[in-house]
Structures are given as structure tokens and as C-alpha cells.
Structure to design on (449 residues):
């Protein structure tokens, strides 16, 4: 490996790239990481972590309201957006520093420049410097996608939501996926007028239909508006900075301070030099890789959201670990993509693992569905009508659990442990044999009928 400047050169210091870099270095590899923005990647810098903090912040509007029946009153309670925003950004700074120190502590060289492939072993930095590496790992992640129509450049993306100068009075959110529904809950909780515009009549495609429907019911009750089967015609900016949004040929626009494009994410491959290195991509721009994260070019690998696999931070971390084990520890490892739990931090949140009811019927035919439709104790006491829903899908007659789907307070926290049971292939009887932990929401999982 002495013929190269580095044993491993990683492009992108997100969750997958950081894990791969530090583990590879711990196995004795000489490693460098190039990052054009900040160490930590989408999840830490502009994604799930700061967004979850905004979710926490937005919950207090309901907490303050619900507190009355618990004996609490707050006089002159008010919300200050800059305080929340600045504390979130301060925590992002903390995490950026922590990730940077982790890499440095493992003797990984950090290059804060954009990097571009110029060949199977060659990288050109923004400064003009060129370096070589025995192996190259691409871990640049994905970037928010935007539709193109007149005025679409006036739309914001999820990246911008953490830096808003002031809280919008009205926001229109384009999309029906997890990003759209999470930000809808956040801004609704912070007191904004929220309208979700979706080109189909389905939100959260891939999640169980009953759970999706329950979220819509609850969101409507909270005051979130939905415009389904709707497309944008144009957006115009007014003299006062507000936006007029025209849709579906209607000459009367909706008005908003912010229009958020939340219609998915695309692999961030522009200007990466994939063509120069001969790396193949699919029709959506994702880098094609095999089960060991290797591209069609022997020396180049890719992990995380830039590939054609599952776009989740814990998956990228697993892929980065498996790459390091395979290439630098002589321990070939792959990632098991079956039964990956996922969550939507909507309000209330959704958590899911395994097959939906529809998927299970299509694959197995003969299934049974157990469910619990209930009001959480705190909602009953607070006189809040919101109901939770838990579903368990099992194969019949074996009763092997095929999927668990939940919507309700703390659903992701509860599902994480239950996902172990699904992954292990347990049956409904294992849940029936477990004594309930009372009083808790989680006990509903062992009381399903």
C-alpha cells in the first residue's frame, strides 16, 4: 500500500463515512476523510438530530395545555423561535466537535475540502491538490429534491428549516413522506398555520394503512390541512416577502411565508467525478454496489444514502462497519436488511417493523391481525381525544410475528425493544406469555386481541 498516499480515502464525513474511517484506522489503515461542510453528516448537522430537538420543542404547546388537569397553570406563557433555533444550532456545534474529535482520536486525517474522483485511485481536492488511495469510500449521502416549475426556486428545503430568521405565520409543505409529516407536526405545535400539499392521496407510502389513516385523523383534529391530488403551478413573491402559491389551475393563490419542498432526497453525486472513475449509477442517480458495498470499480466502495439501498442512519453505520471489517480486518461482513425498524417523528409518532398488513396478505395469504385501539392514560386525564393504535401481523396458523405497527406517544421508544422479538422470529404466544408492565402504554403489546 506504500504506493498510495492513503490506504483509505473517504469522501463524506457523515454517519457511514465516519464509522468506516475510524474502524478502518483502528485496524492500522492510514485514513483520510474529506468533508466539504461539517463533520457529522445529514443526520447530525441538518437532519434527524436537530429535527428531533425541534419536535421536543414543539411538544410543549400541548404539554402546557394538558397540564391544567394535572394542577399546573402558566401565566403569560409564550414561545420564542430564536431561543429554540439557537439552542438547536449550538447542540449541532457540540456534535460536530464530538465527531471531529472522534476521528482525530483515531488518527484519521480530516480534510475540510470538497473532493472529486479523477480515477479508480485518484482524488482531486478543491484546493487543487491531488492524492491517491488504495481504496476509496464514497459516503456523501443524499440531498433534498425539488420539483421544477415557475417560482420553484422560492421554495425552501429541510436544510433551511433550522436557520429560519423568524417563525412563519403560515407554511405550505409539499410532500407526503416522513420529512413532510414531521415538519407539519413541528410547525403546527409551534403555532403556525400548516397546509400539506401532496400530489397523491397517500401519505407515508410503505407504512401500514391503518396507522397512516390514524395520523391523518389526528393531524386534521390538530388543525393541519391537507390538499391531496394537488400539484403546484407557480409561486410568486410579493413585495412584503410573502409567497403566493398557485395550484391545480386555481387563479386564487394560497399565501404563505415559507413553502417547504419535502418530496424526497436524491443521492448527492453532482460534481463527484463518478464518470471519470467509471462508477456506475442507477436511473435515480444512486451508486450501484454489491452486498459488500463494492461498486463496479474494484477499488471504490460506497455506503449510506448515496447507494441504492435503505436510507437510514443506523443502516449507514452498519454498512460502514461492515466495509471496515471486510476490507481492513479480513472479516467479510454484510448487512442484513430484513426487519429494519423505522419511525416517523410526527405528532404522535409512528413506529414500524416488518411487513404491513397489505404486504403480509400479498406474501402469505393467510394471516391474522391483532390490534389495540385505545386512549393513553395521560390523554384520558388531560381530556384529549387522541387515540393510539397498535397492530401485530402474524402468519396463520404458526402465529409467527410478521410485523408490528404503532402510532401513539413514545411509539418509537417502545418498538425498539419489540423489534428484537420480530427479528428473532418469535410468535404471538411469546407476547401472550409475558406479564404486562402495568400501568404503561407498552403493556398493550402483550394484551393484543
Amino acid at each position: 500500500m506504500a504506493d498510495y498516499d492513503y490506504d483509505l480515502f473517504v469522501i463524506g464525513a457523515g454517519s457511514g463515512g465516519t464509522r468506516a474511517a475510524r474502524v478502518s484506522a483502528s485496524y492500522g489503515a492510514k485514513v483520510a476523510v474529506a468533508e466539504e461542510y461539517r463533520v457529522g453528516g445529514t443526520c447530525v448537522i441538518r437532519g434527524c438530530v436537530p429535527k428531533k430537538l425541534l419536535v421536543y420543542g414543539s411538544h410543549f404547546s400541548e404539554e402546557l395545555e394538558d397540564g391544567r388537569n394535572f394542577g399546573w397553570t402558566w401565566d403569560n406563557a409564550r414561545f420564542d423561535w430564536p431561543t429554540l433555533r439557537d439552542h438547536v444550532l449550538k447542540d449541532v456545534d457540540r456534535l460536530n466537535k464530538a465527531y471531529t474529535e472522534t476521528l482525530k482520536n483515531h488518527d484519521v486525517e480530516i480534510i475540510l475540502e470538497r473532493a472529486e474522483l479523477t480515477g479508480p485511485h485518484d482524488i482531486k481536492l478543491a484546493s487543487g491538490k491531488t492524492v491517491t488511495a488504495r481504496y476509496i469510500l464514497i459516503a456523501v449521502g443524499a440531498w433534498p429534491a425539488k420539483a421544477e416549475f415557475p417560482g420553484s426556486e422560492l421554495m425552501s428545503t429541510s436544510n433551511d428549516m433550522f436557520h429560519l430568521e423568524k417563525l412563519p405565520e403560515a407554511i405550505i409543505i409539499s410532500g407526503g413522506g416522513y420529512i413532510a409529516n414531521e415538519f407539519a407536526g413541528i410547525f403546527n405545535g409551534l403555532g403556525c398555520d400548516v397546509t400539506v400539499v401532496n400530489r397523491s392521496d397517500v401519505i407515508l407510502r410503505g407504512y401500514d394503512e391503518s396507522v397512516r389513516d390514524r395520523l391523518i385523523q389526528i393531524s386534521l383534529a390538530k388543525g393541519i390541512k391537507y390538499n391531496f391530488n394537488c400539484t403546484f403551478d407557480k409561486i410568486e413573491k410579493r413585495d412584503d416577502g410573502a409567497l403566493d402559491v398557485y395550484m391545480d389551475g386555481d387563479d386564487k393563490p394560497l399565501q404563505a411565508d415559507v413553502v417547504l419542498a419535502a418530496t424526497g432526497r436524491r443521492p448527492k453525486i453532482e460534481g463527484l467525478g463518478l464518470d471519470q472513475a467509471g462508477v456506475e449509477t442507477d436511473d435515480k442517480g444512486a451508486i450501484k454496489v454489491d452486498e459488500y458495498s463494492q461498486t463496479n470499480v474494484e477499488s471504490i466502495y460506497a455506503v449510506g444514502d448515496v447507494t441504492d439501498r435503505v436510507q437510514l442512519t443506523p443502516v449507514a453505520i452498519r454498512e460502514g462497519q461492515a466495509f471496515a471489517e471486510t476490507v481492513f480486518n479480513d472479516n467479510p461482513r454484510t448487512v442484513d436488511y430484513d426487519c429494519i425498524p423505522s419511525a416517523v417523528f410526527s405528532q404522535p409518532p409512528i413506529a414500524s417493523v416488518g411487513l404491513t398488513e397489505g404486504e403480509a396478505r400479498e406474501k402469505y395469504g393467510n394471516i391474522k391481525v391483532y390490534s389495540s385501539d385505545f386512549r393513553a392514560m395521560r390523554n384520558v386525564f388531560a381530556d384529549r381525544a387522541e387515540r393510539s393504535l397498535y397492530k401485530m401481523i402474524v402468519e396463520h396458523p404458526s402465529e409467527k410475528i410478521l410485523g408490528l405497527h404503532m402510532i401513539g406517544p413514545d411509539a418509537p421508544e417502545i418498538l425498539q425493544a419489540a423489534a428484537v422479538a420480530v427479528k428473532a422470529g418469535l410468535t404471538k404466544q411469546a407476547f401472550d406469555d409475558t406479564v404486562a408492565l402495568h400501568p404503561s402504554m407498552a403493556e398493550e403489546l402483550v394484551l393484543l386481541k
About this structure: The first strand starts at residue 6 and ends at 11. Residues 81-105 form the longest helix (25 residues). Residues 348-446 form a domain with the Enolase-like; domain 1 fold (CATH 3.30.390.30).
